Amino acid sequence: MHELPHYNECPHCYAPAAVRADGGCLACGRRRDDTEGVDPRMTAVTVDVRHELPCCCFLCGADTDRGKTLSYLSNPARGPMGWLVGLLPGSTRSRRHRQLMPVCGPCTPQLKGLRPITFKAGQEMRLRVHKRFRALYEGVNGRPHLDWG
Ligand SMILES: [Zn+2]
Ligand SMILES: [Zn+2]
Q1: Is 52 exposed, middle or buried (0-12, 13-18, 19+ CB in 10 A)?
Q2: Where are the domains of the chain?
Q3: Considering Cα of 75, then 149, then 2, then 122, what sign does the dihedral take?
């Protein structure tokens, strides 16, 4: 086992990003000392959809054995033309994906409208999660290699 070098996670976008000279995050531009809207209990993790998930609500960190389907659209259509294209049968513009996630009862309503930060359809998705979920997930599956691609 080797430890990955520690990186500084942005409290706003959770990217393991460097900080600009002016103090802003290289990924999202917000300052590290700006705490507005920051929830220190939350972080982000990349979930490999083939991996085993811990029995821990990914939104609040509570123990749960409930599974709920996270359902999201791959490409939300933008603008009037995008909206039209999205309605066409067989359109690849906007596809619905589903992923079973451990979610406790009280957090279930939060699933509505929730989208991953980024994702590769059918492979992995980067989600805003509770720190306990991330710790348990990494305990089961190991920490992923950083992918700077
Ligand atoms: Zn950021
Ligand atoms: Zn919960």
Answers
A1: exposed
A2: 1-38, 42-141
A3: positive
Ligand nearest to the Cα of 26, by number: 1
| Ligand 2 center–CA 110 separation, angstroms | 9
Sheet containing strand 124-130, edge to edge, reads 42-48, 124-130, 118-120
The ligand placed nearest to the CA atom of residue 31 is 1
Position 73 scores a pLDDT of 85
What are the structure tokens assigned to 7, written together? 């990186």
Measured distance CA(135)–CA(132) in Å, rounded? 5
* Phi/psi of residue 42, nearest 5 degrees: -100, 155
Q: What is the mean pLDDT of the chain?
A: 84
Task: Write the single-letter amino acid at 75.
Answer: N
Ligand showing the shortest atom-to-Cα distance for residue 133: 2
Residue 2 has pLDDT above 70, yes or no: no
Using the mean position of ligand 2's atoms as its centre, give its distance from the Cα of residue 15 in Å.
Answer: 23
Q: What is the DSSP string of 42-98?
A: EEEEEEETTS---SB-TTT--B---EEEEEEESS---HHHHHHHHHSTT-SSS-EEE
